[in-house]
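> example.struct
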């Protein structure tokens, strides 16, 4: 009756002719269910038992699919599957081995045995046990009955992947517990249960007595956090008494595990000691004794040493040989304390040059200062080039370097008609509101729309209203705000055939048309604040701006004249004179900008290594390494930085040279520490520049010529000709 009541409570109806009542046993979905629990359907098991051994990988997959359906009954399934799973891997050669036959027969034998899983009862104590082997994990959830017996509810098994097989044994055991808990989540969540393991260290890791071992804290810490969601008590069970889960696999003996652990620790310690030794030796200062010993082992310097002592140098016909580099300045070479000197500077052998460069660059000076320091102490051929490479390849120096010389100014193409290209940006918040600023690149006609929301939806609604009034532009330029980079906004532009261009991140100059007007409107509204309301101030500003002649607008006319073909009539319309200043073209502005700022044209090739300006975190390096992936336009580049692709302007890139890697022989290291006093770099004094008088700028005068308005052609469709 309880079943009928529940069916009625949920609004279901049943047909009596399809129902059977008072059945002690039913067969349902391949299982036989009775009051004791559930077991596999004997008919299904008979079909599996009659299957012949597979002859190809497809039949192996079919067999594995059948037995996986009854995997909850077979506690050893994951232990028996690996030989069969190996036959299903890609490019694996099919070969039926004795191990495959054993697994095949063993699975069928287990399925034919008396398998029974008890029904889940939330009122009985719940026990979850898990164990791990070299190739997989197995787990079981069971009930503990009043008589002390335990009966399984469900078995699971899982084969370990290749990375998981590299886990340490404690991590495999912990992974088995986590897999069991997550798999049995619906049975145990919100209920107290007992978690059993035969790996005693897990008691202190997943219990509440001790902390997590440092050598494996990261992965185990994540798993410990997962277990915080459950109410459980963990128990240790000896491996010999761990029959339910341990039947899934037999662990490697404790002695072997300890031996392997010791070997790994010893190897790791030896590797760390060797690394620290090499690092420490590289940081030791180079002494005169080391230079003297290394020079004797250097074939080139040893030869130069002999020629310098004898004073007789042979004629060198090959000007490209290494000896010719010392032949030309041979008169400046001398021997002091068995060391080769060049004008008072000691000559460094090839083996020690990289270490000397590190010593010279310890304070990270620039190229000029490092050369000045080196020229007072050491010498070798082409030392200047080596110094330049060291400084340019130093990541620490590059991360805090100044910005490079600005790239030559590249103006936007000049539009030939209104509303071909428009620039937009958001200004604000001003008094709790934002303003969407839209500027026509041809006429400089501005549109400013107040809004309280700057989402993609709100932006699209505003643009729909503007485009309904003036039409769809060919190109829309914006910054990288989320409202402009969303897929919704991209679809909006694509559906209307609008080419959407975005300025590079952290380079607002590329959208200077809108950025400049944002600054203009902020200043304009600030000046009118207190005299007018915010809305009135906005309308007064826009009317004045649109009706004022603009030198950057074609012919120096007003934005209204170039946009709508007429001037806006205002109360000042009759008083404003015509702008007589000559038109200033963008090309002339480019020349003036390049000359004033000393800008130089700069380009990068695909695959070239560069330093990229980093704006993402102020606490990290300012310049980081990257590789040019693609050039976009005249000044934009797509740069590969680690695993991400950044878009940067040429002004945000610097060239990068490959660092120098030179091996230093360890046998040349001398433990004696000789402190050397660095010679300070010479200080130069420059007289202050003499001020140059600036000639007065002539004031433009207003023309006194009487001008008349031109007679414009008015098109009339009904008129056939015009006089």
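> example.seq
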């Amino acid at each position: 009756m309880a079943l009928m009541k529940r069916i009625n409570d949920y609004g279901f109806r049943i047909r009596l002719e399809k129902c059977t009542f008072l059945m002690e046993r039913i067969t349902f979905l391949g299982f036989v269910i009775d009051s004791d629990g559930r077991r596999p359907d004997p008919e299904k098991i008979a079909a599996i038992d009659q299957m012949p051994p597979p002859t190809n990988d497809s039949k192996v997959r079919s067999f594995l699919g059948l037995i996986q359906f009854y995997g909850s009954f077979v506690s050893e399934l994951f232990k028996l599957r690996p030989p069969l799973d190996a036959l299903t891997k890609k490019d694996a050669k099919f070969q039926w081995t004795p191990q495959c036959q054993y697994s095949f027969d063993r699975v069928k034998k287990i399925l034919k045995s008396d398998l029974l899983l008890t029904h889940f009862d939330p009122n009985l104590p719940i026990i979850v046990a898990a164990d791990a082997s070299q190739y997989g994990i197995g787990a079981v959830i069971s009930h503990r009955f009043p008589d002390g017996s335990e009966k399984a509810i469900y078995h699971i098994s899982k084969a370990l992947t290749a990375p998981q097989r590299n886990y340490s044994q404690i991590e495999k055991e912990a992974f088995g517990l986590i897999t069991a808990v997550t798999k049995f989540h619906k049975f145990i969540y919100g209920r107290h249960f007992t978690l059993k393991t035969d790996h005693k260290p897990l008691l202190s890791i997943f219990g509440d007595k001790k902390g997590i071992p440092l050598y494996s804290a990261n992965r185990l810490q994540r798993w410990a956090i997962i277990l915080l969601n459950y109410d459980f008590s963990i128990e240790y069970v000896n491996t010999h008494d761990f029959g339910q889960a341990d039947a899934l696999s037999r662990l490697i003996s404790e002695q072997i595990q300890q031996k392997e652990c010791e070997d790994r620790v010893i190897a790791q310690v030896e590797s760390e000691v060797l690394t620290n030794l090499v690092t420490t030796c590289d940081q030791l200062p180079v002494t005169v004794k080391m230079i003297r010993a290394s020079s004797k082992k250097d074939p080139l310097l040893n030869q130069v040493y002999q020629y310098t002592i004898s004073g007789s140098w042979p004629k060198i016909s090959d000007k490209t040989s290494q000896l010719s580099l010392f032949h030309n300045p041979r008169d400046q070479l001398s021997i002091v304390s068995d060391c080769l000197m060049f004008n008072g500077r000691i000559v460094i052998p090839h083996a020690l040059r990289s270490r000397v460069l590190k010593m010279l660059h310890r304070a990270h000076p620039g190229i000029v200062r490092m050369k000045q320091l080196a020229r007072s102490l050491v010498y070798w051929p082409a030392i200047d080039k080596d110094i330049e490479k060291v400084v340019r390849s130093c990541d620490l120096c590059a991360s805090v370097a100044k910005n490079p010389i600005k790239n030559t100014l590249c103006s936007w193409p000049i539009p030939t008609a209104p509303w071909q290209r428009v620039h937009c940006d958001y200004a604000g918040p001003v008094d709790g509101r934002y303003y969407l600023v839209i500027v026509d690149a041809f006429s400089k006609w501005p549109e400013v729309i107040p809004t309280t929301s700057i989402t993609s939806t709100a932006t699209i609604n505003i643009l729909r209203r503007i485009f309904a009034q003036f039409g769809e532009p060919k190109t829309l330029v914006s910054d990288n705000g989320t409202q402009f980079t969303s897929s919704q906004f991209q679809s909006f532009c694509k559906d209307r055939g609008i080419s959407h261009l975005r300025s590079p991140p952290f380079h607002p100059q590329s959208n200077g048309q809108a950025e400049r007007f944002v600054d203009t409107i902020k200043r304009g509204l600030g000046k009118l604040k207190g005299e007018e309301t915010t809305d009135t101030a906005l309308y007064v500003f826009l009317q004045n701006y649109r009706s004022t002649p603009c030198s950057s607008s074609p012919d120096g006319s007003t934005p209204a004249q170039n946009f709508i073909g007429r001037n806006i009539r205002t109360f000042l319309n009759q008083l404003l004179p015509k702008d007589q200043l000559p038109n200033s073209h963008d090309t002339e502005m480019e020349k003036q900008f390049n000359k004033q700022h000393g800008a130089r044209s700069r380009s990068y090739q695909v695959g070239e290594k560069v330093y990229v300006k980093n704006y993402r975190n102020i606490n990290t390096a300012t310049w980081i390494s990257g590789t040019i992936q693609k050039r976009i336009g005249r000044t934009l580049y797509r740069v590969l930085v680690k695993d991400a692709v950044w878009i940067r302007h040429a002004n945000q890139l610097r060239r990068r040279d490959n660092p120098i890697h030179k091996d230093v022989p360890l046998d040349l290291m001398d433990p004696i520490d000789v402190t050397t006093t660095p010679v300070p770099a010479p200080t130069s004094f420059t007289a202050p520049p003499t001020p140059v008088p600036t000639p007065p700028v002539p004031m433009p005068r207003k023309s006194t010529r009487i001008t008349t308005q031109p007679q414009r052609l008015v098109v009339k469709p009904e008129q056939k000709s015009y006089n």
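> remarks
Residues 287 and 674 are 6 Å apart (CA to CA).
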